[in-house]
Amino acid sequence: MSQKNFKCFQRLFAFLFCFVVCFCACFCIVSCRILIMKISMINYKSLWALLFILASWITFTVFQNSTKIWSALNLPISLHHWNNSIKSLFLKAPLIPLKPLTETELRIKEIIEKLDQQIPPRPFTHMNTTTSATHSTATILNPRDTYCRGDQLDILLEMRDHLGHRKQYGGDFLRARMSSPALMAGASGKVTDFNNGTYLVSFTLFWEGQVSLSLLLIHPSEGVSALWNARNQGYDRVIFIGQFVNGTSQVHSECGLILNTNAELCQYLDNRDQEAFYCVRPQHMPCAALTHMHSENKKVSYLSKQEKSLFERSNVGVEIMEKFNTISVSKCNKETVAKKEKCKVGMTSTIPSGHVWRNTWNPVSCSLATVKMKECLRGKLIYLMGDSTIRQWMEYFKASINTLKSVDLHESGKLQHQLAVDLDRNINIQWQKHCYPLVGSMTYSVKEMEYLTRAIDRTGGEKNTVIVISLGQHFRPFPIDVFIRRALNVHKAIKRLLLRSPDTMVIIKTENIREMYNDAERFSDFHGYIQYLIIKDIFQDLNVSIIDAWDITIAYGTNDVHPPQHVVGNQINILLNYIC
């Protein structure tokens, strides 16, 4: 509420208060008048005058000290209270002109509105009316005894509820995968939602052999709607605990992206990018004394009891094609597949983007060569920026290049800034964590933390500089606007970088899929999938490449936020092919 409106509200309250006081005073006067008439007609006039003077004095005192009375009553004056309780009193008051939305805010609004249309509310009165994997049917279109390598296999999926009734709308969160465990082979399938309860699931038969098909109902459409609604309601499912140090004194205080408190706050604001983080200011401590941070899950949920039942372990990731037999795929004497060009930056991605064969990733649109890592990285400056899934790359580089030496940057903890160099080959590889939110029970230093946009801005960039960015996992527990704003700000920073240094190579690594049964409201892969779509949409106009870790980890079937080393190695091999 503006200061001007607040003062008007004070005056209005004072006026109402005075009216009540005057009414009571008049009532007393009338009562006294009757009593006086009975007692003495002589003293009537003098007592009447005295009571009138007393009532006038009370009214004048109240009006003049309205602000103090307001404070003493300790009434709520929040914006929410103003909007919902008092707005009817000011319908004809002149409106204060609103500040126009910035370009970033307009883009955030546009993306959220588009997502809201794709994820409409799906209220349900009983579990029986939600999508059931057991009662849904999958039918192979144009079935054959044997398929040929390279063929497309299509499946029509008809969704039903637990009572066997056909669903009339789509929106279920499905995951399609084909695999041959004996061949260490796997690939994702493409799911097309017709928004009427039917889906087309398409598999490209990349290899010969016996192939198993899987179609998981991760969340029914009702669960998807519940997760989307819950996600955008609050910032307090995860709270942050900041450590402030001043001399020998240490104090812990609650922190967060938004804090619902009347206490004095420390604001850590990036004014240009309008990203902020707050801590309750400890007594006798300056805001600059914040040194360390960790997070804790709070016992807060925005799901109803009925909605929570959709995310019990038995209802998550249920197989629809459980009774299906494996299919047989043969070579069929087809002509040799034309040789694909080598993978390079800027190539468009397909769905699926590739497949795994003998534990090796093979893209659809290009070919990957085996690259000698040491020679490929000679003279290169590699910046790895983001979360722990890109830190895995740093650890892989250090384990794979025995001449890389770690440099002690005099920081502590697993989330410390890491630097490794090979002086003979002039290789420089470094990793730094992204700024808030950074979720985890492990305490980490915030002394050197900065937003990735600032790190990108101070990077000179040139043809031997490579930047790899990964964002997502730590944003899942928070409203989607937080992630969108961060992605847009990183987009603008990369745009500035490529303007001054167009030869700089920039790679965006998307999120990995993660554990399926781990706290759906905070960390469901549905949240990750929405962020995956946002990343692909926001960065499509820049000369950057996207390493589709989402599709790669589905193909490998990892279901682990930190996939095994061989999966990380195959992600890095894509990078090496881009560089060399």
From TrEMBL:
Residues 361-580 form the NXPE C-terminal domain. Pfam families: Neurexophilin, NXPE4_C. It comes from Papio anubis (Olive baboon). This is Neurexophilin and PC-esterase domain family member 4. Keywords: Membrane, Transmembrane, Transmembrane helix. The keyword Transmembrane applies. InterPro entries: Ig-like_fold, Ig_E-set, NXPE4_C, NXPH/NXPE. PANTHER family: NXPE FAMILY MEMBER (PTHR16165), NXPE FAMILY MEMBER 4 (PTHR16165:SF27).
